[in-house]
Give the backbone structure.
Amino acid sequence: MTAWTPTTCMRCAVGCGFVHRAADADTDAEAGTASVRGDPDHPVTRGLACRRGIEESATPDGERLTRPLVRDGDTLRPTSWDDALARAVAGLRDAHDHGEVAILGSGQQTNEAAYLLGTVARGGFGTRLYDANTTLCMASAVTAYYEAFGSDAPPCTYADVGDADRHVVWGANPAVAHPVLFRWLRRAADADGVEIAVVDPVRSETAADADRHIAPEPGRDLRLARAVLSRLVATDRIDRAFVNAATEGFAALRESLPDAGTAATDAGVSLADVEYLADALDHRALVYWGMGINQHVQGTDTARGLIDLTLATGNVRPGAGPFSLTGQANSMGARLCASKGTWPGQRPFADPDHRRMVADRWGVPVDRLPAAPGPGPVGILTRRPDAVWTVATNPAAGMPDADAVRERLSESFLVAQDAFHTETTALADVVLPAATWGECEGTITNMERTVSRVRAATDPPGAARSDLELIATVGASLFPGLIDDPDPDPAAVFDALTGLTAGTVADCSGITYDRLDDASAVRWPAPDAESAGGYRYHRGESWSFPTPTGAARFSTAESRPLPEPTDGAYPLTLTTARAPDAYNTGVRSRAGDPGPVTARLHPDTAAAHADRIAADGSGRDRVGIESRRASVAAVVDRDEAVPAGLVWLPIHHPTTNRLTLPDRDPRSNEPHFKQCAVRLVAPADAPVRAAE
C-alpha cells in the first residue's frame, strides 16, 4: 500500500494537518485519487479535521482542467504546452510593450507560488496592477491592523481560545467557514462561566449555538461597536492603566462617542444587548470577525472599532484580543508575500531603503518597481488593462458587479491559470491547467501565522503542472534575468522569500524546509532556527507596538450611510455569506452547472411578495431578484433565521455577484459585498433583464 504523506489542508485558513496517500492501483477504483485523514502528529490540529476539508481534498467535485486550451473563435480547443505557453508569453509581452498588464493571484496558492508571482508582477512587469483575491475578503482587517498596531496579522493565536472567558463572534460564521476552529470555541465554552455571543443580522449556524445572538441592522456594526464603547466609558469599565501605558488617541475617541442608547437604537438593538457586549468585554475576551465586517465601504473603520473595544478594555493580552478569521487557506501567506501595500515581510512600500533592498535581491533596477501599490481587483479591472493573468482565482464570479467584470475580462487578452473549469477560464484566450493541493509541494501560512508544509501525494491529472512551475516558465521566458529556472525547487524559492523577511516584524528567516520536516509547523515571527512566534506585542506586563511611538492607536470614525440604501423602488436588502459545503467560488465543490441560486427569505418577506413567487412544477418556488445592475432567478427557501426585509444569497454561487455593487472601502479597496438594494420580480422576468 502507498505510504501516507503529511500535508496541510488548503480548504480554509485553519491550517489542519492532514496525512494523505495516492490511490493504490490494487485496491482503489480510481487511480490518482488520494485518501485523506487528520494527522495526529500535527502540532496545530492534532488529528482534528472537518468532513468538508477531507472530502474536497480527496475527491473534489469540480471539473478538472487536464490539457492546455487556446481560443479559436468562440470556442476553446486543446493544444500543446508549447503552443499555449508561446501564446501566453506573446500576449503578455505585447501588452507589456504597448499597454498595461494586470495580474490577479490568490490565497489558494502556496507561499512559494505567491512570492514568485509577485516577483514577476512587480520585478518583471513593474506593474502596480497586481493583487490577490484576499483583497476581496481580508483587506479591511489588514488595513485596520496596520493602522492600529503598525503590523498586519492578529496578535492572538489558537492557544488563546481555551483561555478566554468570553468569545464575541462578530460578522462571522465559523461553524460553517472554519469548523475545526469552531469546535475549539465550543469546547472552550463548555467550561463554567464561559460564554459565546454572536453579532450577526442573520441567525447563523454559529448564532444558533451561542449563548446570546444580537442582530443589528445590516451594515450598522460600527454604530453598535461605538454604542458598546460608549457604555463601557459611561460605566467606568475602561482599563485605564493599559490605555495610559500602551495606547494613544483615547481622549479624542472618547470625545467622539455617541450616546449609548441613541447609538443602540440606530443600530437596531436594545440597550440590554449593548450592556451584554460591554459586560463580555469587561472579561478576558476574544473578539473574532470575518467578511461580515470586512466586506463593507467602512470595513476598515469597523474593524478598527472592534480593535478599539479590545484596547479600551485591556484585552490585548494572552487569552484575549482582536482575531480576524481569514477566509482562504493561504491569505496570510499572500499577505506575507506582499500582495497588498508592502514588500515581503511587511516592508513599507514607499520606503526607499526597503525598495532598494528588494530591487537588489531581485537583480532589477529600482525604478522598475512600481511606485505605489495597486487599487485592488475592482480598481484594477476598472482600468481595462490590455492583458490579465489570473492564477487560482475566478474574478468573473467572485467580484462584484460581475457582468461588468466579465465584459472587461472579455476585452483583455486573458490568461487563466487554474485547476478547474471556472467562469473565468470560459472567457480566456489561453487556459493553463494547474495542479491543486495534494499534487504540489510548498508551504502555506494559516490565520494564526503558522507556516506548514504542503506535500504531494499524487501527480496532477493529465498535462497539468504546478502553479510554481507555470509562473516560473512564463516569467523566465519574459524576464530571463529575473527568473532563471523554469522549474524551480520550492525550497529554494521559500528561502528567497524568507530571506527577504529577515529583520522585519514578520521575520520568517528561521524557518526552513528542514525545520518544517522536523517540527511540522512553525509560527512567525521566527528570526532564528530556535524561536517561534507567540502572542504578539506583549512581554510580561509591558507592551510594544511597531508604530512610530510604540503605542497602539485608537480610531475616531463614525458610522456613515450605506452606499445603496433601500428605497421605494428597491425595498429589500441583499446580503451574501458563505454556504455550507461550498468552497471559494464553488468550482471545487460543484460539477458542471450549479443550477439556480437559492435565496433565503423570511416567511413574512415571502408572503408580502407572494404575487412574484411562482412554482416551477418540481415542487420548488422561484422568484426573480433584481438590483440596479442585473436580475437573476432564484429558488425560494423560507427561513426564519433571516430577518424580514433581507434577501440572503450564497457568495459562492456564480450568479450572486451579478447583483452586488462595486463600491469599495477607500483605504483597503475591499468591495462592499454585504448590502445592496434589491426587489423581487416574477422569475420569468429575471434571467433576461440587463442592467439599466
Summary: The radius of gyration is 24 Å. The CA atoms of residues 358 and 517 lie 28 Å apart. The chain has four domains: 5-58, 69-136+330-440+463-504, 139-324, 572-685. Confidence is low (pLDDT under 50) at residues 688-692.
